[in-house]
Amino acid sequence: MHSSRLSVIGSHLAHAESQAISPSPLAMTANRTSPLTTHVLDTSLGRPAAEVPIKLYRTGERLGEEWSQVSSGQTNSDGRCNNLLNTLEAGVYKITFDTATYFNKNGIRQYFYPYVDIVFEVQDPNQHYHVPLLLNPFGYSTYRGS
């Protein structure tokens, strides 16, 4: 069963990479509606995490400045959220994933992280920023995707 979950996650990541390397015009329209996208995979179940509520915040350039919410959304059935922003500006952003809502909807009553905040800096707003979240009830991982 363990290798089966890894196989599903591996094939899902390989599919995402192939889309990023050589997307069709239709895939570009569907996947690049926002200069900032995210993707949540539930590694404990080996599948995308659907209907995870997401909030996007932005702050000034100084540490300790207040966060202002600029957008919100939720992941689709494929665990993706491709419509957070129409335009991106340089600055520091935070994506908050409401993981408690996701876990509770899926009957998972024991978890350690009720939410996950990922803070990152956009230096070149002309680039595309993809922020994946690999999630399970007792851990998570993230990286800058493509």
TrEMBL record:
EC numbers, comma separated: 3.5.2.17
GO molecular function, one term: hydroxyisourate hydrolase activity
Pfam families the UniProt entry points to: Transthyretin
Catalytic activity, as annotated: 5-hydroxyisourate + H2O = 5-hydroxy-2-oxo-4-ureido-2,5-dihydro-1H-imidazole-5-carboxylate + H(+)
Transmembrane segments: none
Domain Transthyretin/hydroxyisourate hydrolase stretches: 31-145
Role according to the record: Catalyzes the hydrolysis of 5-hydroxyisourate (HIU) to 2-oxo-4-hydroxy-4-carboxy-5-ureidoimidazoline (OHCU).
Assembly behavior: Homotetramer.
Protein name per its UniProtKB record: 5-hydroxyisourate hydrolase
Species in which this protein is naturally found: Branchiostoma floridae
